[in-house]
């Protein structure tokens, strides 16, 4: 009544607006409810819009005709509405009857138009290209104005028939307003333009940034990328930059502020309550940082979840309409309502998915950057609990778990809401019977929990086996060369196969439980409907199941399917997320370096000053340095010496701020350069490693290269200084790595140089060169302040001051002469050094003149020390001791790796082949090969069972239709026996369908696991038998990726993909069949829409496939950079390169996220289009039902519409499933690629086996032998003619890249001949199988490679030898006592890489292997490189005694170790240039060997 007074006519006239063949909305309704709603929306959200705009301003927009037009139309509306207000008040002043709505509406409208105009100008000024607020407002205003205008036209056409009137002025004003509003609405469909200066930046950021609201709503901005991806294979350069608000730097700046606040608050809380320490809440910090976006996603998900129930309710109304005589327009409105409801649900759902994934991507940026920053600040204590791999794992795996949870977090509340709403609406349909369905669903919860527990239990077992297998694979790949040299590949292949067999058994058991979950997921909705229908018809004979109740209930039960499946999954994600949050939290709370530990006050006279300082590795640990006092004057060279563990490196760490300062003060003035003991290099070019972010200057660079003795290396490396350094510097020798590390320091032109024993990794003559040209008083650094830790005593007389350390204290300091005169710690150190030189041949490389001078200065003390040690020294002559075949820290200590690269194409400076993103679709041959692996019969049976299952499913729905039509037949209405019959048949059909689906799921899982097993075994077989050249050019990570991620996809993901594809294909066919049973001609419309589906899918898959590949490839550099940073964090901090590395991390993350962001857009672009076409099918079906009302039953209409409502989701999921199959079949393609790797020669040739005693003498003959590493490369050995006589001891020498290692590899046929032959005891080695050859030769490699297995397995993987033979070999190798002392003895497990053994023990294990095999030919690759003197003597003595009658071939990097050999082979550029006895070669002063001996100061 009050509204009628307000309006002057009924606010809502049911007869006029609803029960009429020509409905009209009353003017009051449109001018109040509709106008107020749209204006209220604008007024409520304007303050927020203004705040966000002012908070993040952008460059102002340029005036375009669109902006001018919008402003003009807004002003027209304001003027027209102002006139309307004035006109109303003038009428009021003339005492005409004016109802309140007539003046409130124009006033509200005028205010709204004014606000919209102000917002337009503000957006122009602040650079806002598009406004969703204004578009929605003008869109609603267009609807409101249209309805008002319709009432106005009706009033003019029917004068006197309505309770309201309009004047001619109203017609003009409303026409102007309606036209202007519609034009403005259309103009807001297009975004405005940016300034010309910012256009280039906007273009780089892509269409998304410059797109309109409507374009963002329908993802039209992705069209151009989809089209480009369809025309050509996308590459990284084609992708748009990440939008500014999603870039890592901006996100980190905001997030780190909140994180710092949280951590400071935590420190205060812990300070107040030290007993119960609080933990920070990372989730709370993430929530604070991203709450606006999470809230927006919450609202979008809420609307999406609620709109899901609109279609069943409209279906109910439509089925009621079908049986009524209501006007046709009502049916049209309901059909349109179904379309609008479905469209709105699609829009809200797509926007929710897009923004929740974008938000989670931003969270990932925040977490990665926080972890990265923390890694650069971690102290030694903080790092202690984490290996580099674990930190990378936290960044890669734990952040991904958090992201996975955030992507699905809204399901946590939306699933229960949907379940509650479904049950409530079912109550309205079926009454108390719906409770039965609820009880059944509740009963499923513990059952699902038990099944998931079983699956989780098997998943843990599967992951344990996968970890074992990947660990073993990693070890095998790391030690592949050793395995081939020993001919042990088969044994380790069997070990891996055994682990894989266990893994497959667990996977099969897990697959059965997974099939049960699929059965329940399919059976549960049907069973709920069965229980509900059964309860409904059985509790009361008057309950009749009509079409409305049957099909609306089915629609509601179908809605239940998703939340029931998703909720347990989200709970699992949540559990994983909580664990990962705690892990990241713990890491972020780790102990950090104190940035104030080292002061940097200006002090040019004394750049380094330490006063009364005591240091430890952490606050609670014992001191490692005590009472340190140092003053280093400017431009001085200070040497730090002392025994192992005296604190030399710790002192440098203290100066860098890496130690915890307990007391005292420390000041370092100027830029610091740091050379660590173990060189740290990046996976970049040689030049990039040296320049290290500094400006490149050619002359300066050349001087540094020359001074650091790198000029010869630049000539040897395939691409000179543009050669890429492999992971961990794998393609460089230790000496090369160290010299590049020194070159980096020199090039940095710093003020203070901290050099941690940089000369230990290079030869004596190279060390002298580096000292003279770089470090020493005449070197490039002569005007710099230098602290040098060194064991090279011959350089000490040239330094300005020497600091002697012992037990963490400075014992004495002074010049060389002062300290020698004191006869204190330093003199003792020198005496100890010289006395050991009699037995340790490492000292033979020192300058002999300087050594003799030192000996003379401490002669009495030295003689006394020698006499005390006489009993403990083995009385071997110097000549005999030279038989020690030792390694040296030399330029060519890893000649093999460079030999291999020597023949590479010089245009390709990369050491390993780059893994490129594949392009185009996967070939059909891949599918065919995969189906063959799985089993063609399994596919045929699967398809047959799916036909039966879906036939039964369709039959159950048809049966339900028949059942519902009983309600319209009076003879069947109350027939209870018929009801029971209907119910029984319905139950049998549904249960039968579900059982068939369970059987199918089991068959698919088992068949696909069998296929994955076959692929893995074939791949392993081929990989184990691949030639060494394959492993040289293929990074280990790439091979491991095939055996881990790709095989994991083959094991589980691909079977789930194909299962989904089969299920959805048949569901789609059944849905089409169901729709067409009612109206057969709809098949033509479905075919047309189907063609559009296929076209859209083709567009989508072309770009999406490449985006996924690019995203996968750009993710690896993030992990690599992260790993490099963790390893080199000390160097990065020392050089002050932290900011540079942080920016590089940001850049790599942004590059990865640019493809990830576009992929999110691509998914939503596909989704919205597929759902739009699906909604068209629903709409067409609904309109058909309205048009054919009376000619079909409600049951048939309900059948068609229920299937139509399903088809949108089914077809969308089907297209996505096709895409998933094509994306994941790439893993199968990659695995199948490895099943075609070219194999090396056969292991055993049964037609050509050597005699049992071969080789008896050990004579080796090279005849015109040449070889190359791979086809197409240059020869690495050329025309080798050489004879090594039985029992001869032959040393092979030569500079880096000469071919020394290639010659020994040729003996074992790790490289095959290009021409010529190698004969051992007259037999051509190429005619035998590889294992027959390799088992008859023995090698002791330079690096002792051990595997994580028992001692027995490490000695004898084939179980050829008895325990007594093994113990005998252990006794000869002096290892028996140690092994016998172990509780497990020979069954003691060696850790990965032999980490639970000392280096000496590892080398003794290798010696034991050689002693067990004991063949006539022994090859030594500098076998005692890293062992102590005592172990070296043991090994040498054993070799001399046990292999006295054998032919020994030694790769010698140090000449003094082979001076007493029978023959010397000198190699250069792949040829033997000299071959004679050492005496004869030294007699010729023009020989290369003589020049090499002279360089080594041996002559």
From TrEMBL:
<feature type="transmembrane region" description="Helical">
    <location>
        <begin position="103"/>
        <end position="122"/>
    </location>
</feature>
<dbReference type="Pfam" id="PF00005">
    <property type="entry name" value="ABC_tran"/>
</dbReference>
<feature type="transmembrane region" description="Helical">
    <location>
        <begin position="65"/>
        <end position="83"/>
    </location>
</feature>
<feature type="domain" description="ABC transporter">
    <location>
        <begin position="1260"/>
        <end position="1494"/>
    </location>
</feature>
<feature type="transmembrane region" description="Helical">
    <location>
        <begin position="435"/>
        <end position="455"/>
    </location>
</feature>
<dbReference type="Pfam" id="PF00664">
    <property type="entry name" value="ABC_membrane"/>
</dbReference>
<keyword id="KW-0813">Transport</keyword>
<dbReference type="GO" id="GO:0000323">
    <property type="term" value="C:lytic vacuole"/>
</dbReference>
<dbReference type="GO" id="GO:0005524">
    <property type="term" value="F:ATP binding"/>
</dbReference>
<dbReference type="InterPro" id="IPR003439">
    <property type="entry name" value="ABC_transporter-like_ATP-bd"/>
</dbReference>
<dbReference type="GO" id="GO:0016887">
    <property type="term" value="F:ATP hydrolysis activity"/>
</dbReference>
<dbReference type="GO" id="GO:0015431">
    <property type="term" value="F:ABC-type glutathione S-conjugate transporter activity"/>
</dbReference>
<dbReference type="Pfam" id="PF24357">
    <property type="entry name" value="TMD0_ABC"/>
</dbReference>
<dbReference type="InterPro" id="IPR056227">
    <property type="entry name" value="TMD0_ABC"/>
</dbReference>
<feature type="transmembrane region" description="Helical">
    <location>
        <begin position="290"/>
        <end position="310"/>
    </location>
</feature>
<feature type="transmembrane region" description="Helical">
    <location>
        <begin position="331"/>
        <end position="348"/>
    </location>
</feature>
<feature type="transmembrane region" description="Helical">
    <location>
        <begin position="134"/>
        <end position="151"/>
    </location>
</feature>
<keyword id="KW-0677">Repeat</keyword>
<dbReference type="InterPro" id="IPR036640">
    <property type="entry name" value="ABC1_TM_sf"/>
</dbReference>
<feature type="transmembrane region" description="Helical">
    <location>
        <begin position="511"/>
        <end position="539"/>
    </location>
</feature>
<dbReference type="InterPro" id="IPR050173">
    <property type="entry name" value="ABC_transporter_C-like"/>
</dbReference>
<feature type="transmembrane region" description="Helical">
    <location>
        <begin position="926"/>
        <end position="949"/>
    </location>
</feature>
<keyword id="KW-0926">Vacuole</keyword>
<feature type="transmembrane region" description="Helical">
    <location>
        <begin position="171"/>
        <end position="190"/>
    </location>
</feature>
<feature type="transmembrane region" description="Helical">
    <location>
        <begin position="559"/>
        <end position="579"/>
    </location>
</feature>
<feature type="domain" description="ABC transmembrane type-1">
    <location>
        <begin position="940"/>
        <end position="1223"/>
    </location>
</feature>
<dbReference type="InterPro" id="IPR011527">
    <property type="entry name" value="ABC1_TM_dom"/>
</dbReference>
<feature type="transmembrane region" description="Helical">
    <location>
        <begin position="1056"/>
        <end position="1075"/>
    </location>
</feature>
<keyword id="KW-0472">Membrane</keyword>
<keyword id="KW-0547">Nucleotide-binding</keyword>
<feature type="transmembrane region" description="Helical">
    <location>
        <begin position="33"/>
        <end position="53"/>
    </location>
</feature>
<comment type="similarity">
    <text>Belongs to the ABC transporter superfamily. ABCC family. Conjugate transporter (TC 3.A.1.208) subfamily.</text>
</comment>
<keyword id="KW-1133">Transmembrane helix</keyword>
<dbReference type="InterPro" id="IPR003593">
    <property type="entry name" value="AAA+_ATPase"/>
</dbReference>
<feature type="transmembrane region" description="Helical">
    <location>
        <begin position="983"/>
        <end position="1009"/>
    </location>
</feature>
<feature type="transmembrane region" description="Helical">
    <location>
        <begin position="1081"/>
        <end position="1101"/>
    </location>
</feature>
<dbReference type="GO" id="GO:0005774">
    <property type="term" value="C:vacuolar membrane"/>
</dbReference>
<feature type="domain" description="ABC transporter">
    <location>
        <begin position="608"/>
        <end position="832"/>
    </location>
</feature>
<keyword id="KW-0067">ATP-binding</keyword>
<keyword id="KW-0812">Transmembrane</keyword>
<feature type="transmembrane region" description="Helical">
    <location>
        <begin position="411"/>
        <end position="429"/>
    </location>
</feature>
<dbReference type="InterPro" id="IPR017871">
    <property type="entry name" value="ABC_transporter-like_CS"/>
</dbReference>
């Amino acid at each position: 009544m009050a509204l009628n007074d307000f309006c002057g006519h009924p606010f809502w006239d049911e007869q006029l607006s609803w029960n009429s063949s020509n409905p009209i909305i009353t003017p009051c309704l449109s001018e109040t409810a509709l106008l107020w709603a749209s204006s209220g929306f604008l007024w409520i959200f304007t303050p927020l819009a203004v705040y966000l705009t002012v908070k993040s301003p952008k460059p102002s927009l340029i005036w375009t005709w669109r902006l001018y037009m919008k402003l003009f139309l807004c002003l027209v509306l304001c003027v027209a509405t102002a006139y309307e207000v004035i006109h109303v008040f003038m009428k009021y002043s003339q005492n005409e009857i004016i109802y309140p709505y007539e003046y409130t509406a124009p006033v509200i409208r005028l205010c709204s138009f004014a606000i919209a105009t102000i917002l337009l100008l503000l957006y122009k000024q602040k650079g806002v290209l598009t406004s969703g607020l204004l578009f929605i407002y003008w869109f609603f205003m267009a609807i409101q104005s249209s309805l008002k205008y319709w009432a106005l036209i009706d009033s003019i056409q029917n004068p006197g028939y309505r309770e309201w009137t309009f004047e001619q002025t109203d017609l003009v004003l409303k026409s102007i307003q309606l036209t202007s509003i519609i034009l403005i609405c259309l103009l807001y469909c297009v975004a405005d333009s940016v300034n010309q200066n910012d256009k280039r930046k906007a273009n780089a950021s892509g269409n998304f940034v410059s797109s309109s609201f409507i374009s963002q709503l329908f993802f039209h901005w992705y069209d151009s990328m989809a089209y480009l991806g369809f025309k050509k294979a996308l590459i990284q350069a084609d992708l748009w930059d990440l939008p500014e608000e999603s870039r890592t730097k901006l996100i980190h700046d905001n997030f780190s502020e909140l994180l710092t606040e949280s951590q400071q608050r935590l420190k205060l809380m812990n300070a107040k309550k030290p007993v119960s320490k609080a933990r920070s809440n990372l989730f709370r910090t993430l929530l604070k940082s991203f709450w606006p976006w999470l809230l927006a996603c919450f609202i979008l998900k809420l609307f999406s979840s609620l709109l899901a129930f609109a279609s069943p309710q409209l279906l109910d109304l439509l089925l009621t309409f079908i049986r009524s005589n209501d006007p046709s327009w009502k049916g049209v409105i309901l059909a349109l309502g179904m379309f609008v409801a479905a469209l709105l649900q699609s829009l809200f759902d797509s926007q929710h998915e897009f923004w929740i994934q974008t938000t989670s991507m931003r969270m990932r940026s925040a977490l990665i950057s926080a972890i990265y920053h923390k890694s650069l600040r971690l102290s030694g204590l903080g790092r202690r609990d984490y290996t580099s791999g674990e930190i990378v794992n936290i960044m890669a795996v734990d952040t991904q778990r958090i992201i996975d949870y955030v992507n699905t977090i809204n399901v946590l509340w939306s699933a229960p809401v949907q379940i509650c709403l479904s049950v409530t609406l079912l109550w309205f349909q079926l009454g108390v019977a719906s409770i039965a369905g609820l009880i059944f669903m509740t009963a499923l919860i513990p059952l699902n929990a038990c099944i998931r527990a079983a699956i989780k239990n098997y998943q843990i077992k599967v992951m344990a086996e996968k970890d074992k297998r990947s660990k073993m694979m990693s070890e095998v790949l790391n030690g592949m060369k050793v395995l081939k040299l020993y001919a042990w590949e088969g044994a380790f292949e069997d070990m891996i196969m055994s682990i894989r067999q266990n893994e497959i058994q667990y996977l099969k058991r897990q697959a059965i439980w997974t099939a049960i979950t699929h059965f329940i997921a399919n059976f549960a909705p049907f069973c709920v409907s069965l229980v509900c229908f059964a309860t409904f018809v059985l509790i009361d004979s008057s309950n009749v199941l009509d079409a409305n109740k049957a099909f609306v209930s089915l629609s509601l039960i179908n809605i239940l399917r998703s939340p029931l499946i998703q909720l347990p999954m989200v709970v699992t994600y949540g559990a994983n997320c909580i664990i990962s949050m705690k892990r990241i939290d713990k890491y972020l709370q780790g102990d950090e370096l104190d940035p104030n530990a080292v002061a940097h006050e200006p002090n040019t006279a004394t750049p380094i000053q330490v006063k009364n300082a005591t240091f430890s590795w952490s606050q609670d640990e014992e001191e490692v340095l005590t009472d340190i006092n140092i003053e280093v004057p400017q431009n001085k060279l200070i040497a730090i010496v002392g025994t192992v563990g005296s604190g030399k490196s710790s002192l440098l760490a203290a100066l860098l701020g890496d130690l915890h300062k307990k007391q005292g003060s420390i000041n370092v003035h100027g830029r610091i350069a740091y050379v660590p003991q173990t060189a740290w290099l990046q996976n970049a070019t040689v030049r990039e490693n040296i320049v290290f972010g500094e400006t490149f200057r050619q002359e300066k660079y050349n001087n540094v290269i020359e001074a650091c003795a790198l000029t010869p290396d630049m000539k040897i490396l395939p691409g000179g200084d543009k050669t890429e350094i492999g992971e961990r510097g794998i393609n460089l020798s230790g000496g090369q790595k160290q010299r590049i590390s020194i070159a980096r320091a020199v090039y940095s032109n710093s003020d203070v140089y901290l050099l941690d024993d940089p000369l230990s990794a290079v030869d004596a003559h190279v060390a002298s060169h580096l000292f003279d040209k770089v470090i020493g008083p005449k070197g490039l650094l002569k005007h710099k302040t230098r602290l040098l830790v060194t064991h090279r005593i011959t350089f000490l007389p040239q330094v300005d001051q020497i600091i002697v350390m012992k037990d963490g204290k400075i014992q004495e300091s002074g010049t060389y002469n002062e300290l020698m005169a004191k006869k204190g710690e330093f003199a003792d150190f020198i005496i100890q050094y010289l006395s050991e030189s009699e037995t340790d041949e490492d000292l033979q490389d020192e300058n002999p003149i300087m050594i003799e001078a030192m000996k003379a200065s401490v002669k009495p003390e030295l003689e006394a020390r020698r006499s005390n040690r006489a009993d403990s020294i083995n009385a071997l002559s110097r000549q005999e001791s030279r038989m020690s075949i030792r390694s040296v820290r030399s330029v060519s200590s890893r000649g093999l790796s460079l030999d291999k690269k020597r023949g590479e194409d010089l245009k390709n400076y990369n050491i390993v082949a780059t893994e490129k993103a594949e392009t185009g679709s996967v070939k059909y041959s891949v599918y065919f090969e995969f189906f063959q692996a799985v089993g063609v019969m399994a596919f045929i049976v699967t398809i047959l069972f799916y036909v039966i299952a879906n036939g039964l499913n369709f039959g159950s729905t048809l049966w339900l239709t028949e059942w519902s039509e009983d309600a319209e037949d009076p003879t069947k209405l109350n027939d209870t026996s018929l009801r029971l019959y209907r119910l029984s048949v319905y139950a049998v059909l549904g249960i039968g369908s579900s059982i068939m689906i369970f059987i199918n799921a089991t068959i698919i899982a088992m068949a696909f696991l069998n296929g994955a097993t076959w692929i893995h075994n074939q791949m392993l077989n081929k990989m184990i038998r691949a030639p060494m050249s394959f492993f040289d050019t293929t990074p280990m990570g790439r091979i491991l990726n095939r055996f881990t991620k790709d095989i994991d996809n083959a094991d589980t993901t691909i079977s789930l993909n194909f299962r989904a594809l089969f299920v959805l294909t048949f569901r789609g066919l059944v849905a089409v069949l169901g729709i067409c049973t009612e109206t057969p001609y709809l098949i033509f419309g479905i075919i047309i829409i189907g063609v559009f589906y296929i076209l859209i899918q083709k567009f989508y898959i072309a770009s999406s496939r490449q985006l996924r590949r690019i995203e996968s490839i750009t993710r690896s550099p993030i992990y690599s950079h992260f790993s490099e940073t963790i390893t080199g964090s000390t160097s990065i901090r020392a050089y002050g390169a932290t900011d540079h590395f942080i920016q590089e991390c940001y850049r790599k993350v942004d590059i990865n996220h640019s493809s990830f962001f576009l992929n999110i857009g691509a998914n939503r672009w596909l989704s919205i289009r597929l759902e739009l076409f699906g909604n068209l099918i629903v709409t067409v079906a609904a309109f058909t039902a309205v048009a054919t009302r009376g000619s079909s039953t409600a049951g048939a209409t309900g059948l068609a519409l229920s299937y139509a409502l399903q088809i949108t989701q089914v077809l969308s999921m089907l297209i996505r499933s096709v895409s998933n199959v094509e994306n994941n079949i790439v893993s199968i393609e990659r695995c199948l690629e490895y099943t075609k790797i070219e194999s090396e020669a056969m292991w055993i040739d049964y037609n050509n086996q050597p005699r049992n005693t071969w080789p008896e003498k050990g004579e080796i003959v090279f005849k015109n032998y040449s070889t190359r590493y791979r086809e197409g490369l240059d020869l690495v050995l050329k025309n080798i003619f050489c004879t090594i006589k039985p029992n001869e001891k032959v040393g092979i020498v030569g500079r880096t890249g000469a071919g020394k290692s290639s010659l020994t590899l040729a003996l074992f046929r790790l490289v095959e001949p290009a021409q010529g032959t190698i004969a051992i005891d007259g037999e051509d080695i190429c005619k035998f199988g590889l294992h027959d050859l390799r088992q008859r030769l023995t090698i002791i490699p330079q690096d002792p490679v051990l595997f994580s297995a028992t001692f027995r397995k490490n000695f004898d993987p084939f179980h050829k030898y008895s325990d007594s033979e093994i113990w005998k070999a252990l006794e000869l190798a002096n290892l028996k006592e140690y092994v016998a002392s172990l509780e497990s003895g020979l069954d003691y497990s060696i850790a990965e890489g032999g980490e639970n053994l000392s280096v000496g023990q590892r080398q003794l294990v290798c010696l034991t292997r050689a002693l067990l095999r004991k063949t006539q030919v022994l090859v030594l690759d500098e076998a005692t490189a890293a062992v102590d003197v005592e172990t070296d003597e043991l090994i040498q003595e054993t070799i001399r005694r046990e292999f006295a009658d054998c032919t020994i071939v030694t790769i010698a990097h140090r000449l003094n170790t082979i001076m007493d050999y029978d023959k010397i082979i000198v190699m250069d550029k792949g040829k033997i240039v000299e071959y004679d006895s050492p005496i004869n070669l030294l007699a010729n002063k023009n020989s290369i060997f003589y020049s090499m001996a002279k360089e080594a100061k041996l002559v």
